[in-house]
Amino acid sequence: RPFLTAKLIEDGLEAAVETGAAAAAVAVKDTIKQVDDSCIVRKTLQRNMLRIVQTPQVFRYDLLKKAYELASGEFTDDAGIVERAGYRVKLYHGEYQNIKVTTPEDMVAAEIIAKGR
């Protein structure tokens, strides 16, 4: 994430004090549909209960170490490993410009953000 700010790091450290685990997140703006294998809508999820998780993710060392020792299966981020181990993860306000750059479309968005800074 090329647009990480000092504030996100500071906020993450502060948020992790409560539970030992914290991750930046932003509210979902789009409507999210849960579908079946045929792409038939089964449920519309409530936006107000959904967050897009970002980095930084901050953890107490002992908690993260234990979570990795217990981990099995596939995970998309450290917060998922910690959550699966039974620990609470505190989400704190992320930033919409804190984008993950993994696709050509992301690179276009990153270039636009960079030009505006």
What report would you give on this structure?
The chain is of the alpha+beta class and 117 residues long. The chain has helices at residues 6-19, 61-70, 78-84, 104-115; strands spanning 21-27, 32-35, 41-45, 51-59, 90-93. Helix 2 crosses helix 3 (78-84).
**Major β-sheet, in short?**
3 strands, mixed
Cα shape: globular
- Total strand count, please? 5
- The spatial strand order of the largest sheet comes to 4-1-5
Going by helix content, strand content and strand pairing, the class is: alpha+beta
Compute the average pLDDT. 97
Task: Give the SSE order as H and E letters.
Answer: HEEEEHHEH
Radius of gyration: 16 Å
Any idea of the CATH class?
A: Alpha Beta
The N- and C-terminal alpha carbons lie at a distance of 15 Å
The portion of residues forming beta strands comes to: 15-25%
Counting H and I runs of at least 4 residues, what is the number of helices?
A: 4
Summarize the structure.
This protein has helices at residues 6-19, 61-70, 78-84, 104-115; strands at 21-27, 32-35, 41-45, 51-59, 90-93. By secondary structure, the protein is an alpha+beta fold.
